[in-house]
Design a protein that fits this description.
The chain is mainly beta. The protein is built from two helices and 28 strands. The termini are far apart.
């Protein structure tokens, strides 16, 4: 081969190599650039990918972020309520400085809606999975996907609310496995007294974790088995009341998701089998259903009758009880007069602590 041909071949291979490297390493979209269907952003370490996808059997197109090791595990969706009908979508910055998703007619299907007089110039997909929009003059974000959760909670995200601007974070399920539009179920942090996680179907509670005890939520003792790898955090301050978790160095990939059937689940990626392994799933049985056995009821799935009453209580109405409308009442009025009493507290082991949202709680008491 002549030297000239060898030089041309070397240049060609170099260009191909650089293009491949650039394609893989592209974690930013800057003003003046666009991302079209078939193109992606990949976080610096390759853990997360942003691009267009169609879930399940659907032909509709969405912009989302997924785990690179599992392309069908989408953790965040931009245009949940406005899917695209074809592959003509484009992600770009508009003249106002917001990151927008345009359809084939160049109508806006989704926008980051940057406000406050700032103009964004770049969007970056971080290795945490967070899509961050910045104005270029500082590292401070004007908008981030972590503040707008879909159905999944990742390390570094949080549920709850702030007191200074009223912002709230909650998970909302997909409508179905093939439809990422907002579904029937939400997972929120309720914190009128002791914080606890609640799953709602519309405005009806379907499940609660039990209150936070300073280490884990009372109804999920399994959390102690993975708390070192994924430490749990509840922040209760004058600024915010929030729950979240982090991942220790070299921890395996994990996610918490509330699915379209109302089940909340923590999963971990097992690279040896290339699959998600369930660590904990709730509700896990009849007794996890919210208020299954009514006021002062005691649920036991191994008993002949699932519902009973705590010691010192009896069914409020046997007729209602036989119709599975459970509620219990005291057998005797508490003796609290005269400064002395023979009444004592009864220890009931192995149960989820009662709902404290309408209770008075001494938060100064510890587990010690």
């Amino acid at each position: 081969m002549r030297p000239t041909s060898q030089l041309l071949l070397l240049l060609l291979l170099t260009c191909i190599f650089l293009i491949c490297i650039q394609t893989f390493a592209a974690d930013k979209l800057e003003k003046g650039q666009n991302l079209t269907d078939g193109e992606t952003l990949v976080s610096a370490g390759g853990t997360f990918t942003l691009g267009f996808f169609s879930p399940g059997v659907s032909t509709k197109r969405y912009l989302g972020i997924w785990f690179s090791v599992s392309n069908d595990t989408v953790y965040w969706v931009a245009n949940r309520v406005k899917p695209l009908v074809d592959r003509s979508g484009m992600l770009v910055f508009n003249d106002a400085g917001s990151l927008v998703l345009l359809d084939g007619s160049r109508w806006t299907a989704w926008s980051s809606d940057v406000t406050g007089g700032y103009s964004a110039v770049a969007a970056e997909l971080l290795e945490s999975g967070n899509l961050v929009v910045r104005n270029g003059s500082s590292d401070a974000s004007l908008w981030q996907s972590f503040d707008h959760p879909s159905d999944t909670l990742l390390p570094g995200m949080k549920l709850g609310r702030t007191f200074w601007n009223g912002a709230k974070w909650e998970l909302t399920s997909w409508r179905s496995a093939d439809d990422p539009s907002p579904g029937e179920y939400r997972r929120t942090l309720e914190a009128r007294t002791l914080p606890e996680l609640v799953v709602w179907q519309g405005m009806v509670k379907t499940y609660r974790t039990g209150p936070w005890n300073g280490i884990y939520f009372n109804g999920i003792p399994e959390a102690t088995t993975y708390a070192k790898e994924y430490p749990l955090h509840v922040t209760d301050s004058a600024m915010e009341i929030t729950y979240g978790y982090t991942a220790s160095p070299c921890a395996r990939l994990t996610r918490v998701v509330v699915n379209h059937t109302g089940v909340a689940e923590r999963l971990m990626w097992d690279a040896s089998v290339r699959a998600w392994i369930s660590l904990v799933k709730r509700p896990k049985g009849d007794c996890d259903a919210y208020a299954k056995c009514g006021a002062f009821g005691l649920c036991n799935e191994t008993a002949a009758s699932v519902c009973g009453c705590v010691p010192g209580f009896s069914p409020a109405s046997w007729e209602a009880w036989r119709s599975k409308k459970y509620a219990c009442q005291r057998d005797a009025v508490p003796d609290c007069g005269g400064g002395t009493t023979t009444d004592r507290f009864k220890v009931v082991p192995g149960v989820k602590l009662p709902d404290t949202q309408n209770a008075s709680v001494d938060t100064g008491i510890s587990l010690e």
